[in-house]
């Protein structure tokens, strides 16, 4: 079985820190370590980032043989030290932890093809199919006529319209009203209260087909998680819920409905109990139910050894040594995740009223040489080996190597180089308060330079001390505060005063187009970075010329080079996502692997069977 990551989400498995996004820079010039040839400790050429094997030798799927039992309950462990938000809504869920609980009940409107394209129809086992018309600038979604919400009401294309109306509502509190949404004809007029309907959404008479009219047919329109929002909410069930209070409503938190293979029976902040939905359009599930339970990182290995779970995906990398040799009764699966950890810098504010970034060129972290110096001061290769036993590796770009057509192999990121870091700070005017190399540096006005960093709890604090001490070595006084995940993101999203640096990660889903994370009209642009040149490069990736694959690939290369040079954020780690699957599970495919949707008869959650009464422990 698999859970698709269709949209860019805040990554939530215990990561180098936490979860958010992006990249780094380097000086231009022939000797810039961001582009120079890299050798290993013996002076031999290292494999380029695009040539590495990120699977660690593990397969990405497993099929177990045996006689299935009748019914049974699937037990899934979700590794976290933080309670999930418990928001059962595709329009409002925005972090990977919360998305876990949506998977079994929400249902798949469309899905991801082997090239990360947006696909659907009977061959993919989805509730709808999709057709594109580039000339007309439209996408047409057609639903099957045998798909029903968990309360028995038919799923219609008007439920997609309703989701768009929620997102475009002036009181909407989520993160999905972005550039892609504003590309829908008439949606801005609806958002501004100038129209009662979204003119670019046209329903067929039978309410099963929706045609979406776009202002521009952008090159990422056909990508899964790209320009077409595939959100859906039951209008008949939620239309009387106040949008401003949507996330608190019982219909969203306590008694949600979807059209997936399992219905929510009960939920708390640490467990969700599901029961089989007998009228699921692909057929009733083979098991009676399933339960998702949070498990602290410190307990997950012992819980697996005790046979508490049928599978755990996103196993913590920083405890890899404790399960590296395998756990009896389980198969380990691995695949490079569409994820990267990063260090971000606060460079402005979000103007919610105007829906755009307000970049502050005078912000404390505004000098890119300060940011690049901080990147070069970190020995990420050592960090990856010391803290993650090689399961994570130094990232050189905010484009993950899975996206081979767009990933820039020539960029080497920010290799560890203390001399370069000090040189950048010296040249930028950050003088030492005493003798060079002693104490801390001053800001450009000769005043003490104090930098505040925030990160999330759930990771060994020595990791954050590594960052702090690395920056202290180049004369930077960085103090940090650890926050629970929800509090952390509240501070990041609200641009809390006094926060200068934040450690985070992004799960980038199936579309690497950076505009949604770094565009001037994206609330997810947490660094609040904006320049005319940057906006032009983002627009180039989405331009009419970029329908030419070679042009678009080159535009991605140029954007990566510029973004690394400016370093409003810089990437730290990529990660091999590891899952442990019990031998009593009939079949499982790694959720990070694209193109498995056609194999839903084998891996679909509704078709998973159990081969024994309890998980195997030997």
TrEMBL record:
<feature type="region of interest" description="Disordered">
    <location>
        <begin position="29"/>
        <end position="52"/>
    </location>
</feature>
<dbReference type="GO" id="GO:0015833">
    <property type="term" value="P:peptide transport"/>
</dbReference>
<dbReference type="GO" id="GO:0043190">
    <property type="term" value="C:ATP-binding cassette (ABC) transporter complex"/>
</dbReference>
<feature type="signal peptide">
    <location>
        <begin position="1"/>
        <end position="30"/>
    </location>
</feature>
<keyword id="KW-0813">Transport</keyword>
<dbReference type="InterPro" id="IPR000914">
    <property type="entry name" value="SBP_5_dom"/>
</dbReference>
<dbReference type="GO" id="GO:0042597">
    <property type="term" value="C:periplasmic space"/>
</dbReference>
<dbReference type="InterPro" id="IPR039424">
    <property type="entry name" value="SBP_5"/>
</dbReference>
<comment type="similarity">
    <text>Belongs to the bacterial solute-binding protein 5 family.</text>
</comment>
<dbReference type="InterPro" id="IPR030678">
    <property type="entry name" value="Peptide/Ni-bd"/>
</dbReference>
<protein>
    <submittedName>
        <fullName>Oligopeptide ABC transporter substrate-binding protein</fullName>
    </submittedName>
</protein>
<keyword id="KW-0732">Signal</keyword>
<feature type="domain" description="Solute-binding protein family 5">
    <location>
        <begin position="126"/>
        <end position="523"/>
    </location>
</feature>
<dbReference type="GO" id="GO:1904680">
    <property type="term" value="F:peptide transmembrane transporter activity"/>
</dbReference>
<dbReference type="Pfam" id="PF00496">
    <property type="entry name" value="SBP_bac_5"/>
</dbReference>
């Amino acid at each position: 079985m698999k859970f698709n990551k269709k949209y860019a989400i805040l990554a939530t498995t215990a990561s180098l820190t936490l979860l958010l996004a992006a990249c780094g820079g380097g000086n231009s010039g022939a000797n810039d370590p961001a582009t120079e040839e890299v050798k290993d400790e013996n002076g031999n050429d290292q494999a380029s980032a695009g040539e590495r094997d990120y699977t660690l030798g593990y397969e990405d799927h497993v099929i177990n043989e045996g006689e299935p039992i009748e019914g049974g309950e699937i037990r899934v462990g979700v590794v976290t030290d933080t309670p999930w938000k418990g928001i059962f809504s595709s329009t409002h869920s925005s972090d990977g932890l919360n998305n876990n609980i949506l998977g079994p009940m929400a249902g798949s409107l469309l899905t991801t093809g082997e090239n990360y394209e947006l696909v659907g129809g009977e061959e993919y086992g989805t509730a709808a199919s999709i057709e594109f018309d580039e000339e007309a600038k439209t996408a047409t979604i057609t639903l099957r006529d045998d798909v029903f919400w968990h309360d028995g009401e038919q799923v219609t294309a008007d439920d997609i319209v309703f989701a768009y109306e929620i997102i475009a509502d002036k009181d909407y509190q989520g993160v999905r009203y972005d550039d892609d949404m504003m590309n829908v004809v008439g949606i801005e007029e609806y958002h501004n209260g100038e129209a009662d309907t979204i003119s670019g959404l046209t329903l067929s008479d039978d309410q099963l087909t929706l045609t979406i009219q776009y202002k521009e047919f952008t090159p990422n329109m056909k990508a899964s998680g790209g320009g077409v929002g595939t959100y859906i909410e039951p209008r008949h069930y939620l239309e009387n819920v106040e949008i401003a209070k949507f996330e608190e409503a019982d219909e969203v938190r306590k008694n949600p409905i979807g059209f997936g293979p399992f219905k929510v029976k009960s939920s708390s902040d640490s467990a969700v109990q599901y029961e089989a939905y007998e009228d699921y359009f692909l057929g009733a599930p083979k098991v009676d139910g399933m339960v998702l339970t949070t498990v602290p990182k410190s307990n997950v290995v012992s819980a697996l050894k005790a046979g508490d779970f049928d599978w755990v995906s996103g196993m913590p990398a920083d405890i890899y040594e404790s399960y590296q040799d395998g756990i009896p009764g389980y198969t380990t699966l691995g695949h490079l995740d569409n994820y990267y950890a990063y260090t971000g810098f606060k460079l402005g504010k979000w103007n919610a009223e105007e829906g755009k970034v307000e970049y502050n060129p005078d912000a404390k972290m505004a000098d890119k040489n300060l940011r690049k110096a901080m990147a070069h001061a970190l020995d990420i290769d050592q960090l990856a080996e010391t803290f993650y036993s090689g399961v994570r590796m130094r990232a050189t770009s905010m484009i993950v190597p899975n996206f081979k057509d767009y990933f820039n192999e020539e960029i080497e990121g920010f290799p560890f180089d203390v001399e370069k870091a000090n040189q950048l700070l010296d040249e930028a005017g950050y003088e030492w308060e005493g003798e060079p190399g002693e104490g801390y540096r001053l800001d450009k006005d000769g005043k003490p330079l104090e930098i505040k960093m925030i990160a999330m709890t759930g990771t060994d604090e020595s990791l954050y001390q590594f960052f702090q001490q690395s920056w202290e070595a180049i004369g930077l006084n960085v103090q940090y505060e650890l926050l629970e995940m929800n509090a952390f993101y509240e501070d990041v999203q609200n641009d809390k005063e006094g926060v200068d640096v934040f450690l985070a990660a992004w799960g980038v889903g199936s579309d690497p187009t950076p505009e949604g994370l770094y565009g001037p009209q994206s609330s997810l642009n947490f660094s609040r970075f904006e320049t005319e040149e940057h906006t032009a490069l983002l627009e180039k990736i989405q331009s009419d010329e970029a329908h030419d694959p070679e042009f678009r690939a080159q535009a991605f290369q140029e954007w990566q080079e510029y973004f690394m040079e400016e370093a409003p954020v810089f990437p730290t780690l990529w990660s091999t996502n590891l899952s442990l699957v019990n031998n009593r599970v009939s079949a499982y495919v790694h959720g990070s692997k694209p193109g498995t949707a056609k194999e839903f008869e084998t891996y679909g959650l509704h078709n998973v069977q159990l081969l024994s009464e309890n998980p195997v422990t030997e």
